[in-house]
Amino acid sequence: MRERFASGFDPFVIPFLIGMAFVLGYCLFGMLRIWFQLPRKDRRKVVLSLITPKGIWKNVKDIFANCLLHVKLWKRNPVLGYMHSSIAFGWFMLIVLGHIEVWLFLPERLRLFYYPIFFNFFVAESESTIQGAVIFFLMDFFLLVVLSGIVLAMIKRVRSRIFGMRRTTNPSFLDRIGLYALWSIFPLRLLCESFTAHISGGSFLTLPMNWIFRQFLGNSMNALPTWWAYSIALGVFMCVLPFTRYMHIPAEMMLIPLRNAGLHILHPRKGFARLQFFSCPGCGVCIDACPMSAKKENIKDCTVYLNRQLRRGNEERIEQISDKCLLCGKCTAVCQVGVQGPEMRIAQRMLRRYAVNQHYTDIDPTKFVPEGGSSAKVLYFAGCMTHLTPAIGRSVRSVLDKAGVGFKMMDPDGGLCCGRPMMMAGRREQTRELIRINTDIIRASGCNTLLLSCPICYRIFKEKYSLEGIRVVHHSVYFDELIKQGRLKISGKTLRKLAYHDPCELGRGCGIYEQPRSAVSAVGTLVEAEKNREESICCGGSLGSLSLSYEKRKDITLASLRNLTVADPDTIVTACPLCQTTYGNYSEIPVKDIAQLIDDASK
Amino acid sequence: MTGNVAVVGGGIAGLETAVRLKALGWNPIIIEKSSSLGGHVAEWNCLFPDLAPADKLVKELVDAADGIEIHTDTEIASIFYTRKSYSIVLSDGSRFMCDSLVLATGFSLFQAEKKEEYGYGIYDHVITNRDLELWFNTGSDERVPSDPKAIGFVHCVGSRDIKAGNTQCSKVCCITAIKQAIELKEKFPKAEIYCFYMDLRLFGRKYEDFYIRAQRDMGIHFIRGRVSEVSETIDGRVFVKAEDTLSGKPLRVSLDLLVLMAGIVCNRENTTLAESISVQTDEDGFFRSRDNITHITESDRPGVFFAGTCTGPKTIPETLAEARSAAISVDAYLKSLK
Amino acid sequence: MDFGFSLSPSSAVNLDRTDMSLYEMLCDREPTARTCIGCGSCSATCTASAISGMSVRKVLLGIQRGQYREVEKMLSHCMLCGKCTMVCPRGVNTRHLILELCRLYGNSEGEL
Lengths: 603, 338, 112
Description:
The complex is a heterotrimer of chains A (603), B (338) and C (112).
Chain A: E1 2-3, H1 14-37, H2 40-51, H3 53-68, H4 71-76, H5 78-105, H6 119-122, E2 123-124, H7 133-158, H8 173-195, H9 197-200, H10 206-216, H11 219-240, H12 248-260, H13 272-279, H14 285-289, H15 303-312, H16 315-324, H17 330-334, H18 341-349, E3 378-381, H19 383-387, H20 390-402, E4 407-409, H21 420-424, H22 428-445, E5 449-452, H23 455-463, E6 471-474, H24 475-484, E7 497-500, H25 514-523, E8 525-527, H26 550-564, E9 571-574, H27 577-586, E10 591-593, H28 594-601
Parallel strand pairs in A: 3-4, 3-5, 5-6, 7-8, 7-9, 9-10
Antiparallel strand pairs in A: 1-2
Chain B: E1 4-8, H1 12-23, E2 27-31, E3 46-47, E4 52-53, H2 54-64, E5 69-71, E6 76-82, E7 85-90, E8 95-98, E9 100-103, E10 107-109, E11 126-128, H3 129-138, E12 150-157, H4 173-187, E13 192-197, H5 207-216, E14 221-224, E15 229-232, E16 238-244, E17 249-255, E18 257-262, E19 264-266, H6 269-276, E20 304-306, H7 316-337
Parallel strand pairs in B: 1-2, 1-9, 2-5, 9-20, 11-18, 12-13, 12-18, 13-14
Antiparallel strand pairs in B: 3-4, 6-7, 7-8, 10-19, 15-16, 16-17
Chain C: H1 21-29, H2 41-45, H3 49-52, H4 56-64, H5 68-75, H6 83-87, H7 94-109
């Protein structure tokens, strides 16, 4: 290969250079800003995670798999997966191959930023082309891959249903500009390279096109304007990128290492949270997933819109969206980049300032310490919700008696709240105080196991309490163990079909999916809901939502019930008193807690 | 024209309508899904406000219906409208044509176990108003203790309750609770009796006298506060939590028996029946009358009439009056066909 | 002028002089507040009532009767556990009502 221009420069690269300089500067500045918004402790954590080979390998692997290959999306929806990875990975390969070309043929030009991008404009084929034939082929091949992705993207814009998406997001004005710029980049590149293919070489795609064009177009006349157009499209795309959803491309690359380092959202708008809402690609997968979207009026309250409003700083909408959410975590389960919808919303709720602030300083924990001998090592905390579903509490006690487990009640006549509802409302001080008092009570009881029948309580006891030496366990897990150990004899296994509903706080919240199923299978025939485990649909009764009134939750519950009853079960089984009550209000078939089933079937 | 009128439901509304139609010279045919006539009233012991025995009323109506074609243990299998008459096939295989249809399908008693916080079906001494009437009739129900010291009545169980899916007042529970409280007090003079109410709705003639009697002569306590939670004490008694809203203080009391005043909700079969003959039901599942003032017994569909509690909660006198009214409307309709 | 003693204010509720602005503001933010029938279910089931005398029923009545200090005291012990919302027969969104009222308090105290 030889150079066509001694200077190695042409004015048409300027738009590209401007765009590149802008986007790089912007991202660098943004990255530094986010970095310094992180608390010192978090920064240390990240640095420590980045210096181990294992940490580096995991980050590189995750970035490659998620940002380029979109592995998660492939699993969810192969067509969308192909569309995204063809564009991202194809583009990435074009850039890499461009650099290899320059490195092979004109290594001294490698320091010119634009050279690998516009390589074909600046060079002419020489005798040594044979070395380039493979690369030319690869260049054309990946260009074709990207173009196929772009065609799919265009089809998706018009008919998203073909791709299995019932609803998709409405792009904003700048999103559209970015979108059209992105769409035009690759067809323009094809034109550019075709016009110059007889000079700079080409392969199966560009050479035939070059031949066709030359039959009726003066190639040299068209070449330069097309290269200009190509450069402008690139420049426009990069200039609008920071203000569109395409910001997720650079943001996600930073999000992955930070998440791998185990960071949590501490500030509603800064640091990790900021990175998350910039990482949202606005794909809208969360819209169909969200249980609230059973009602059309709630669609604009899904996580993708929260992220958009956070980027725009629309306080009124941010408050509405974050107060309405059920905090079920379904959006996070399906999210391709792992934006934490519930945590983001709780963080927004933390911003509120209240004139009346709850305090519990005058509560004396010693008054709540359960009586009873120290032989009872299991402490059963029924919690507020179980007090409204006495059948569950009664069954739990009965099963414990049958298995010969010595236990005592922490709240026989009602105790204090576990603090999870307070935490969901974003009130950290109050939560901490409740945790402190409850911890004192539990410690004073002398137990070694804390048994819970409510997943809402279970989650906060597991996550936020420091109860070293005390096992925190949910009754579904504990009873499953009792059955497996043979301490609890199941005598009356029924042939009835039991559909198990994964409560949000137990499943997505604490990752407990298998033990309840094993327990249900021990007493009857387990059938699955259409969407289950990580993708189970919230019953609609969640305490997570602050503003949804009872009547507005009805459609959510009905939709969730439809999902649960696809296998035509005889009974719905759940492991949460709140789910049970919520379903019980509307269900045609009986709704029972796992404890009731086990109690009925055991002796 | 056949002169046949199908009467769906053999409760007091259906019986009274059929008897009156017969007297007016038409040929009513009663279709009753259960094996006996009289509906809910037949399960009751005695009736407010005069404590008249319920079986006497039912017996009078059944006797009066002598000679009327009655299908018990039978439901409508299919129904077709063909040129101003209905062709009906019953589940017992019989079929006939009729010119008019009276729906007297009645109501369902709210399933008290759905309000789980009250512990019906969970605790040993929680019963419903219906269980209590059955106990009055038979004297056998092990949930009713032999020597209770304290008894509670919970009003509005499944009525005026959005969570129970029924926001309507059931109309008859307040007065029924007072009636049952008086009867229990007569049986157990030493027992303290508490009625937990949200609002006392004693609208009918003599109802207020009944209330006064319960207060003055029987010493029954009325507590304004809805029970929110029921638990069980170690010795098996029922422990009730409510707020005494008049003093503004939380109230706790342990009882030997708790009676839940299960309310009147729609008969669920109304919906399927309504679809098969294209009449309307309201959101609460009761049939929709042509209007709620002057044409309560008439549907939007010519020839289809309503009687009794299938259009909403009613007392027995109201039901009977409406049954007669429905008979007159049917009579006028059939005459117009001639 | 200080006479060394004070006349106790009338214990009667005078609706002509009652300031309902806080209640109205609350109802704007949580419209279900208007549908309360004062049945007391919320108070009876309340987790905090044993400790503080908390009662959503009394809170709602209190802000319509000018008993702001008592209401504030009751509110300050709520744990947001949601039991009151679960038992309310009218479907009043009591948790949201409490949170909104806690926010509104500062706004209106100047006027009250």
